[in-house]
Amino acid sequence: MEGPHESNGLRMRISDIFKITGRGIVITTQLEGTGNISIGNTIEVNGDEEYVVIGIDRFNNALGPSKNIGILIRGDLRRHRSEYYGNTIRVIKP
Prior knowledge:
Number of strands: 6
Shape: globular
Number of helices: 0
CATH architecture: Beta Barrel
Helix content: under 10%
């Protein structure tokens, strides 16, 4: 039986972070592991911060679709963005 904060196996490492005025924060990352991420999911950053996903964009490269995505989240980050680079994101089931 899964608890309310059970991960679905999908993990990501933060590559970059952007703030888009009027929209929110975009975290760029590369998909690792198996599982899904969807709009409305809650993600956990650094093991202690939770944010709601309000948008997802998958980037393409010259060779076709890649594992690089941008995740638009609601809210402001609690720390300076430079403290997040290389840290892990985990999907928490809603």
